[in-house]
Amino acid sequence: VHGGAWAIPDECAKACVDGVKVAAQEGFSVLTRGGSALDAVEAAVRNLEDNTVFNARGATLNADGEVELDAIIMDGRTLASGAVSSVKNIANPVSLARAVMEKTDHMILTSRGANLFAESVGVASIPTEALVSAYERTEWEKHKNYATGVKEDFNSAHDTVGAVTVDCAGNVACATSTGGIRNKMAGRVGDSPVICGGYADNCSGAVSCTGHGESILKVTLARLIISHVEQKTVAEASQLSLQYMAERVHGAGGAILVSPSGRWAATFSTDRMAWAAVDREGLWYGLDPNERH
Hints:
Keywords: Autocatalytic cleavage, Hydrolase, Protease. The chain is α+β, with helices and mostly antiparallel strands and about 290 residues long.
C-alpha cells in the first residue's frame, strides 16, 4: 500500500507510516482468510480512506472549499474496472467504484451521476465536514488565495492512497483513492480514477500510482510501468517510468507494483512516500528514499 508521494512534513511522518502499516496488514488479513485480491485491495484502501491522516477521508479542498473524491478498482483476472470521479459526501469511494464495476455496464461514473448511483445502491452520504481534517482546513485557508493555474509544486500535498496485491490463485488487483490536489478547480479530475493511475492485469502485474495527476495522465504512468515489467525487475520498471515522467513532462510521483509471482516494489521521485508491504517474510515499510525496514 502507499499513502501518497509528496514532501510529507516531519510532524505527519510517523502517523503516515503507522497508517500504511495498519492498512497493509488489514489487506493481508483478508488474503489469509481466503479473500480475493479484489477484496484485499478494497479493504486496505478503505482502511486508508478512514484514516484522516491521508488525502481521502482527510481530503483536500478545491478552489471553492469543497471536497470532490476520485477512486478506481481493477481486477487483473478479467480486466474489469470501476471508478468514480468528483463524487461528494461518500466515506469510501473505493467501495462505490467496486459497485460501479459489478453493478453497472460502465467503467466510470462522475459527479452528480456517481452520487445518484450511490443513493440507488444504498451507499449512505456523510456531511462534507466529516471528510475534512483540521490540518487540511488550515492549509487551505493559507493557500486559497493563490492564483488558479500557477505552476504546480509537485511536492505539495498529493497524498493519494492505493493498494496492490496478488492472491493465492495468482490474481492481481489494484485500487486507488484520492481527494485530489489542494485548491484544484471545481470538477478537476486527475489520474486516480483513470486506468493510467492504476492498472491490473494477471499477465503482468498490478500498479497504483500517486503524485501529480496531470503528469501521470500525460505519460499513462501505470501502463508505462507495466510495459517494462517483462524486460526489467519490478523496481527497475517503476524507476525507469518515473524517470521518463520527470524528463518528459517534469512531473514527480510514486508507484507500488506487484507481479503475479509476488515480486513487489515501492518507488518514488518525490521527497517522501509512505508505503508498506506484507509478504511471506513479514512486514516492510518506508518513507524516505532508500529506506526499507
